[in-house]
Structure formats: C-alpha cells, structure tokens
C-alpha cells in the first residue's frame, strides 16, 4: 500500500509518495514549452492510426464496463445503506448523520475531510459553501448510546463544515488546516473509551462493530481512534491488522492534521456478539468475523507450536502413542474471586473419568490472546461460569460444545449475551442453571431468603443490585451427579464428530 503525505500552500499542492514497506519514493515532473517538428503524415498513415485509436477506445470502454460489473459482483457498491441507511447516496461535500439506531449513531463525511484534535476535538469537511448554511454535527463514536452513564465519559467530536474559499479560516487556525498526512483511502473514526478494559465490551462494543463497519473496504481504510490506549492497540493489533493495511491514528495524541477523501464517524453494531448477514454488504456472518480471528492468530500459533516441538524432541515417541488414542479435549475456563467453581478439581476428575482430556485455562489481563485462541480453537468442549470471559466462545470452532454454568439471578444476561450468540455461531450450546444448594449464597442466607427464593425481586431493582449480590458475591459448588448428564451429552456429541 502507499501512504501519501501532502503539503498544501496557497495555490499549490505538493504530494510525496511513501512506500509503506520502506521502499524509496518516486517523483515525476511534467514539463512543457518545447515542441518537436513532426513531418506531415501521409493519408494512409492517418487512417491507420485512426483505426488503432478506435480499437483502443472500444477495448478500454469494454474493459471499464466489465470492471464495473466485476466490482458490483464483488460487493463494492455503496455501503451507506448498510452502515447508515438514512445517509444512502451521500453527496460529495456533505456531512450526514444517521441517528435512527438504538445502539449507536453513525455519521458519513464525504469530500475533503481533515482531523483537528489540537484544540477543538473536531473533524473538518472543507467544501465550497458559498451562501449555503450547512449545520455542523456532534457525535460520541461509541456503541452504547442508550446508556447515559457511560456515554457521559466518552469524548464528543465536532463534525464541522469549513469554506475552503474563506481566507480568514486558514489565517485564524494557525495552520492547523494544512494537511500533514494525506490518505487516498477512507477513515473510520471510533472510541476505545467507555467500558474498554472488559473483554466482553471490547469485542461486543468495539472489535465486532469495527469489523461490521470496515470489512467492505478490504483493508483499504485507516482507523482513527479517539481515547486511544496503547495497551488496546497492542492487545488487538493482530485483529486490527487484518482489517486495515495502515497503522491506527491516535486522534488526540497525534497533533498532525490527517486528511481523507471520506470518513465514517462511529461504528455500526447489530446485536450482542454477532453479525446480522441481512445487514451486511456481501452477506457476511459471524463466521466471517471468526475467519478474521483465524488469520490474525495462526501465524503466532504456528510459532508457539514450533517452540513446543523443539522443547519436546525427546518426547516424540510418547506423543505418537498418545495420538493413537484420541480423546476429545475439554477446556474449563477457570475464575477466581467470584463465580468460582469451588469443586473444580473434582469436576476435572469427573470429566477425565467420562473420557475427556482436560485442560484448565486461567487467563488474566496479561495473557496473550493468541494463546487463549490456540487453546480454545483446538478444543471440543468449553465449560465456564457466566461472566465476561464467556466472550471467548468466539474462539471455538463451529459445531463444538459450549457449556455455560448459569448462577442464580443471571439467567437473562447469560442467555442474551452468550447463549443466543453462541447458537448463531453454530455451537452446540448447553445451559446449566444451578440449583439453590449449588450456590454459595444458599449457605449465607438460607433457602427462604428472597435472595435465594425470588432472585427477580432483586434483579428488577437494576444492574447495580444484580452486580453486588449475584455477580460479585456468588460462587458455585456443582452437584456433580447432576452435572454428569450434560457432560456426558457433550462427550457423546464430541466423539461422534471425532
């Protein structure tokens, strides 16, 4: 890919082409003023050249027509109807915002788009306004617009029209309107603020909407991040690199003016941890998103496998023998602190008795995502207690088994945020709702307390009440005789597939 840098002065433009892979640049100079004398051609030569010209024009027109059909077949048509339906057919020199969505607002800017984070948190659209009065827009580019409390923490952007013919504008802005970096591709502007830091919200509110909003650009797009976090870029850089050829831009930290031919401000979101194919250009699904994860993590996984093979050269014979007796792999996604499986060691023993090869996965904030992906991608069954870590079901292969243990008071959230999306991804989903005696709160309050007997009376009071009682103070001690049934179902299902 090629990144362009352009210095703009009054009356002239200078564009420097920089090879993204570190190659040298190339410049061309066109000059005029000298004419060479050409002998008067004969009439036959004129006719012959005319014939060649007609052939060239015809072939070029035919190629262009075929190319147009080809682009249409590949889904390169207008994207607005999928990303911002009310902005379909947005004309050049226009800012259009679609605020009809319940979850997010999305604005489209087409024309000469320039960032200006230095003082105004603005994105400018330079156009010839004349006597027209165009209304500027404000937007918070985050996908939980209904949730007032968190949206108050998200940075607001001003999308502002500027008249390129107004000389007073450039003089008053101290040169901030001059393009320091020019991209020949669109921008997608979004925030990594809000609930960022929670893996569920990082995927649901950020990564999947980023795929939905940008995948039709086929990586020819620049991500401009408001409330930029270096750790976020490091954690999700492998995924981001599969969606864009360009390094992301720190909107607030990079004081240069970045210029684009168009921009999408805000992200489109469909539902919890999913992609609705009917709302996607090219009918993409959540499985297409999962393919992005595959491409993102497999290079690193191959490296991990090679490292392990070098360490285990002397264990080769043992590995071959183990491979003869293939067992389905079960991964227990372990928790500490709250919603912990108190008899986890006994669960491991039960699963091994049934016939599983068991791996206990204890990820933390520093665990490399590629390692988590490798572990789950190679498994046949995943077990975990409801919580943000269940987002990792996205790392499972389709037609594998996901068993979600559902604590008291979390039924709706467990099914909405993880159960339904898992089914949409093609997983064999099994929900295991614990009984009161399997809950640590039972020993604390007794069976007749409303917390145990009538959880809805507390969950209806709001999220804070649910969080304090059922999420932060509840652990699980599984009735293994009862849990053996779904575990055996999972084993039988896995063995049939193996």
TrEMBL record:
Annotated Glycosyltransferase 61 catalytic domain residues: 297-403
Domain of life: Eukaryota
UniProt KW keywords: Glycoprotein, Glycosyltransferase, Membrane, Transferase, Transmembrane, Transmembrane helix
Signal sequence, start to end: none
TM region positions: 43-66
Subcellular location: Golgi apparatus membrane
Membrane topology per record: Single-pass type II membrane protein
Name the UniProt record assigns to this protein: EGF domain-specific O-linked N-acetylglucosamine transferase-like
